[in-house]
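Trying the structure run again after the queue cleared.
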Amino acid sequence: MGIYNCAGTLVEALDSLYAQTYQDFKIILCEDGSSDDTYAVAEQYAKSHDNIILLRNEHNMGLNYTLNRCLDHADTEYIARMDGDDISLPHRFETEINFLDSHPEYAVVSGPMIYFDADGDFRIGTGKGEVKKEDFIMGSPVCHAPCMARTDAFKAVGGYSVGDRLLRVEDYHLWFKLFAAGYKLFMLNDVIYKMRDDRNAYRRRTWKSRLNEAYVKHIGYKMINLPWYTQVFALKPLLIYFLPNSLYKLLHVKKR
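Done. C-alpha cells:
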C-alpha cells in the first residue's frame, strides 16, 4: 500500500484486511510525503500489529516509485495491492489466492469493484475473465487496487516504471509490460473490493493526466502489437477532457 493523505480512512482500510477470511499475510506500507497525519496513523497501527512493515519517503515521489519501494520488501509468493481509502471485502484474499493456486497459467488476478462515496454505493463493475489483447484498447483491462499477482512476475518486468509521463497510469503501463512479456491476466466476475470514489471526479480531470493516458496507450499498443489503426483510440483521453462537465459526470456515475 502506497499511502498518501489518507489519515481519515487508513484505519478502516487496514481493518478490512484484518477481517479477511485468509490471515497469513504481511502488510507493507509506504507513506509518500503526506501533508496530513497519515504517517502517524500508520505508525500507531503498526505498533499493535507485528506483521506490518512501515516505510516512509522523504518527500512526495508518486505512486509508481512508492509501490516499487514496497515491492523491494516483498518476499512472499503473491503480492496484493490496496489503496489507503478503500475496503477489501472479507473474501477477497481467499478468492484470489485460491484462483492463483488452481490456475498457475495466470500471473495476475483481480476483480470488479463497488464504487462508493459518503452517500453510499453508486456503481458496480464487472469482470470479463481472461484479458485479451483487444481489451487494452479502450482502457486499463485490470482493476489495479484489488489485484493480486505472482511476486516474481512483477519483479521480472522491473515493477512499476517511474516517470512523470506515467503518473496516474502506472498500472495501465504495468499491464502492457506484463502482457508483452507473455504473462496472462484474469478478471473475476465476483466483486471483491470497494473503491472510495467521487461522483464529482470530473473536477479532478487535468490535461497532464489525460496526456499521460494518451501517451501510455500510444506506446502500449505498440508493445503488444495491436494494429496501427487502433492508435486512434489513444486520442480518447484527450477528447474526454473536453466533454462538458455535466455529461462527464453522468457517464462516470452511470458507467457499468
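The longest strand covers residues 27-31. Worth checking whether this holds up in the mutant runs.
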